[in-house]
Structures are given as C-alpha cells and as structure tokens.
Amino acid sequence: MYDAFQIGPFTLQYYLIVVLFSFLVTYYLIESLIKASFVKQFILKHFWTAALLIVMTYKFSIVLFRPDLLLTFSWLYLSGGQDGFYLGLVLSIIYLYWVGKKEKISVKVFIYSIMIMIFSYLVVYQLIKIIVLSFV
C-alpha cells in the first residue's frame, strides 16, 4: 500500500491518493444519501476544513514527535504516522465542537454528525483500499 509512482519530478504514494479520494467520495456520499437536515448542513459546511486539518496535522506532526529532524530536510518527506493521524482526528473533532458551540448545535447533533463522518470515511477508505490493492 505504500508503493508510489512517479509523475515527472513528483513521487505520489498510493496511500495518499487513496486517502484523498476517500475524503472526496465520503463528501459526495454524505451529500447524496443524507436527507436535508441540520446535521447534513453542518457536515457539508465543515467537512473540508476538518479533512484539511487532519491531513495537515498528519503530515507535519513529525515535527512534534521528532523535533531533531528540524535541523535536516528529511522531515519534509516524512509523515506523522498513526500518531499524527490520531492527533489530527482529535484536533478536527475539537475544531468541530468549537464551531458547533458557536453555531449553537446540540451535543446530540454534534455526536451524530461526527459518527456519520467517521463511519462513512472508514467504510469508503476500506473499500477503496481493497480495490486499489487488488490492481496494484
């Protein structure tokens, strides 16, 4: 799954393509399958911000976990790993809670929204990963 292919000077890992494609498919899945409601409106409004927060934290959390790499340029090519992903997930949930509190969303709606986003993403990610691994 961590194989990569090269397009000119850029090397793209299959893993990152699967993650980004999973975010995209999850967004459109939520948009098409959930009926119009306050939950859907909240999810669609803040989905990409939360996804970007997860990806950026995942990519740059290596600086938090291995600060000795700051003196080299090799930290640009690394990622935060599983710890970075979980840190990004926690930060995005905190962000969504903060936004939900500003928009006066109830805790029930907030938890329901988070569960829908995470479950949808995990199902889509696993399906896409299986499809990609069967061809690679």
From TrEMBL:
Keywords: Membrane, Transmembrane, Transmembrane helix
Recorded superkingdom: Bacteria
Record-annotated membrane-spanning stretches: 12-30, 42-64, 84-100, 109-128
Official protein name in the record: Uncharacterized protein
